[in-house]
Amino acid sequence: MSDSPNDGRAMSQPFQIAVRQADRASASTRIHVLGAFRIVVDGRELRLRTRKEAMVLLKLALASPDEVRRDDLVGMLWPESSEPRARHSLSEALRGIEQATGLRVGRTPDALTVADEEVWLDLHDLDEALARGDVHDARRLFVGGFLAGWYPPTAEASHWVDSVSAAVGPRLEKMARAQLDERRRATDSRGVSAAVDLLERLGVATDADREAAAEAEQITGWETLRDGESIPTRIPIDREGPFVGRLKEMRRLTAELERALAGELRVVLVAGEAGIGKTRTCQRLARLAALRGARLFLSSCYELEQSVAFGAISEAFAGAVTPSDLAGLKPIWRQVLAEVLPEVAE
Fold first, then answer.
1. Taking the CB of residue 84, how many other CB atoms lie within 10 A of it?
2. Closest alpha carbon to 199 in 216, 187, 186
3. What are phi and psi of 276, to 5 degrees?
4. 305: which DSSP letter?
5. DSSP label at 237?
6. Would you say the pTM of this structure is higher than 0.70?
């Protein structure tokens, strides 16, 4: 056996989890490594005889359905033993795992495997959530760091745990930030809150992230008002329940809003058949604009009122024009405005 644990193979390779497509929902053995290390078999929590047995099971589950080299396990968990003694210890650990869990470990002279459908690992599901960009599923799964609070049985095992932990955090942060940006543009308030919560759990949330979460909470507040509740704003209250869909449209509208807030003059036409949600979509954009400091002038146009000259403009300005607005106007423009808002002339 080599004097160097794992012959440099397991420790030098960057850790990467392959996306699994197999259905592991029915697996009788479930291993939780995010947060507290737990092994659950047929619904009951199991404690293996030794931490080395737990480490062997974890390595097999993490690699499943791929193989794990016997030399890697021997070098990691029994580095001081002679090769015959270390291999015997590994065989005893495998026997203990099989007896305790009912798993069938595949064996060859050089490698070990566990069937993918026999074991479920929360880290696999997290990896699939990251690949999908599913921020809600990622938040549900990531309840803590990799093997948080669990002490590996050897220094070599500890180095491996550190390498896995170091790989999980950056990938999770990258996905959370990408989803935060996308979902904020789409005014997906629940998605924003989930992304920021993930960043908080990772310890990397910034003040800007928290401001985005606060904005999202206010948008959600408008969505969940009950009869009799109100928010001090001229924007019509949304009492139709959570806003769903329209993510593509809201991303485009939010992009136009950001350009307008940067000083550009923008005009957007939202068109479509009656009843498909044009008004609610525009109201949602108006709420977002108000939360970001924009000044709103709101109006509605109806076919029966088309004979009223400048009716839409009059409605938009009514109650929204302040004395300070008028103070800066030249007399000729005050006269023009008075044709639309008679109270200006008073």
1. 9
2. 216
3. -95, 0
4. G
5. P
6. no
